[in-house]
């Protein structure tokens, strides 16, 4: 932290890297000039020899220019940035395939030498982006499969990974993994909050389009056996101008194998499926569907539907809507469970009436959909394709269906049914209901 060109704001926001320092040493004789030309606070620019292009799997020398912090989660920092290929160094493409920081190792995908792949067609000074760069510590006791999974998934409703690189921080000497993804302007948490502040909810047509895209992303992920394991509004990116939705944050995601136990302490409290709350270790991708139900409910209510004050009372919040869990539920989920089973009914009406009371302002088809998702038994809980085929989405299929993005008087068309062959295969018998010409 001795370089005078680094502003205090930058010091607080970003981890410095060795390459950045080298660059500054390099220009030391222009020190005053550099200071004058120094980018404004928060802008952080550096060049790395081994930035991997996800599509081509080649490592290239690139300059990264970070200019805005856009997110801070439990594990990572997310910044907005632009990147450009840097061919200034003649040897830049003859570097070793093995990145010194181990990028690509254990991913199961070879990382080749960047023979200018992708760079050739671009002018040297052409900035690419904007992107969102997520930075997380590379090696921790907690195993993240985020890079591994983001490298294999390719879907219109899943955030796409463009580049990745490892970088050592000069502050703590730790290696950080950097994931360069496409950037979306908002997420569902911000959208729900925005409308709540003006005493509205997200418009119904938007909710339908968002929910459909969320279910479509799950159809695809679950088709690979991958469970996201942290579905919640802040992990669902949206673009309010186009009503597009993409799931992000695969930091907890995992491919679940039948009969292989997984930790039950995943998902954020309000969005945890009941089987996770009671400590089930042989759960399925249906835990994500529960999360989807909670997200949809939150869009209608403007606040989380099950706000447990403590981990133990999360099940109580669920029982207040669904009634006491059946005994078979505990036995099937975790026979060792010794916590409160909430066997006494916490309301006097029927479950249907309970739903209607809580979602008093919501349309009946939305309530019907939620009643098929928010159920204790994961096996009875709706699958992604069953969600997608629900009449709640019929409106989207109409040729006349158009949406007006927030603050816009120009309607836009959404292409929500452009399924791939793989998706049609996964839809199976539901294929016919979802074949829509748009
Ligand atoms: N690709 C992206 N585009 C725009 N914003 C993003 C993107 N990825 C993440 N963010 C923002 O950063 C926040 C944290 O990122 P996330 O991947 O969820 O990290 P964490 O594991 O720390 O929760 C998100 O809630 C979102 O607001
Ligand atoms: Mg997150």
UniProtKB/TrEMBL annotation:
Alphabetically list the UniProt keywords.
Answer: ATP-binding, Kinase, Nucleotide-binding, Serine/threonine-protein kinase, Transferase
**In what ranges is there compositional bias, type Basic residues?**
23-33
GO MF annotations, alphabetized? ATP binding; protein serine/threonine kinase activity; protein serine/threonine/tyrosine kinase activity
Q: What biological processes does GO assign it?
A: cell differentiation; filamentous growth; signal transduction
User: Where in the numbering of this chain does the Protein kinase domain appear?
Assistant: 64-393
**What SUPFAM superfamilies does the database record attribute to this sequence?**
Protein kinase-like (PK-like)
Pfam families annotated for this entry? Pkinase
Query: Which InterPro entries does its entry note?
Result: GSK-3, Kinase-like_dom_sf, Prot_kinase_dom, Protein_kinase_ATP_BS, Ser/Thr_kinase_AS, STKc_GSK3
Gene Ontology cellular component list: cytoplasm; nucleus
The source's domain of life comes to: Eukaryota
Binding-site list for ATP? 134
Q: Which intervals of the chain are annotated as region Disordered?
A: 1-38
- Residue ranges with Polar residues bias: 1-13
UniProt-listed PANTHER family = GLYCOGEN SYNTHASE KINASE-3 ALPHA, PROTEIN KINASE MCK1
Similarity comment: Belongs to the protein kinase superfamily. CMGC Ser/Thr protein kinase family. GSK-3 subfamily. Belongs to the protein kinase superfamily. CMGC Ser/Thr protein kinase family. CDC2/CDKX subfamily.
What protein name is recorded for this chain? MCK1
């Amino acid at each position: 932290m001795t370089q005078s060109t680094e502003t205090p704001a930058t010091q607080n926001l970003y981890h410095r890297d060795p390459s950045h320092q080298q660059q500054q040493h390099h220009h030391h004789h222009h020190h005053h000039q550099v200071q004058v030309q120094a980018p404004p606070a928060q802008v952080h620019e550096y060049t790395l020899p081994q930035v991997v292009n996800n599509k081509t799997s080649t490592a290239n020398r690139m300059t990264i220019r970070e200019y805005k912090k856009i997110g801070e989660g439990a594990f990572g920092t997310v910044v907005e940035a632009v990147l450009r290929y840097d061919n200034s160094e003649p040897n830049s493409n003859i570097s070793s395939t093995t990145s010194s920081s181990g990028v690509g190792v254990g991913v199961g995908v070879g990382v080749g030498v960047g023979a200018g792949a992708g760079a050739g067609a671009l002018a040297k000074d052409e900035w690419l982006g904007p992107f969102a760069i997520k930075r997380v510590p590379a090696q921790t006791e907690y195993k993240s499969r985020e890079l591994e999974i983001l490298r294999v998934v390719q879907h219109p409703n899943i955030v796409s990974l463009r580049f990745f690189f490892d970088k050592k921080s000069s502050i703590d000497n730790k290696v950080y993994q950097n994931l360069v993804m496409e950037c979306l302007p908002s997420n569902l948490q911000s959208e729900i909050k925005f409308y709540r502040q003006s005493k509205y909810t997200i418009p119904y047509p938007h909710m339908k389009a968002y929910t459909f895209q969320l279910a479509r992303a799950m159809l695809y992920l679950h088709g690979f056996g991958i469970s996201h394991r942290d579905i919640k509004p802040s992990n669902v990116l949206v673009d309010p101008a186009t009503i597009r939705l993409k799931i992000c944050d695969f930091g907890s995601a995992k491919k679940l194998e039948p009969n292989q136990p997984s930790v039950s302490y995943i998902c954020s409290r309000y969005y945890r499926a009941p089987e996770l709350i009671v400590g089930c270790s042989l759960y399925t991708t249906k835990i994500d569907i529960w999360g989807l139900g909670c997200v949809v409910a939150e869009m209608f209510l403007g606040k989380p539907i099950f706000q447990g004050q403590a981990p133990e009372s999360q099940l109580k919040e669920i029982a207040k809507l669904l009634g006491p869990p059946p005994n078979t539920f505990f036995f099937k989920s975790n026979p060792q469970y010794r916590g409160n089973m909430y066997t006494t009914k916490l309301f006097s009406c029927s479950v249907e009436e309970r739903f209607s009371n809580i979602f008093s302002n919501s349309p009946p088809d939305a309530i019907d959909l939620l009643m098929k998702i928010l159920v204790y038994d994961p096996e009875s809980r709706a699958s992604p394709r069953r969600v997608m085929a629900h009449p709640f989405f019929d409106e989207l299929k109409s040729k006349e269906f158009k949406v007006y993005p927030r603050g816009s008087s120009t309607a836009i068309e959404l292409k929500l049914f452009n399924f791939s062959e793989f998706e049609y295969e996964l839809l199976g018998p539901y294929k016919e209901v979802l074949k829509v010409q748009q």
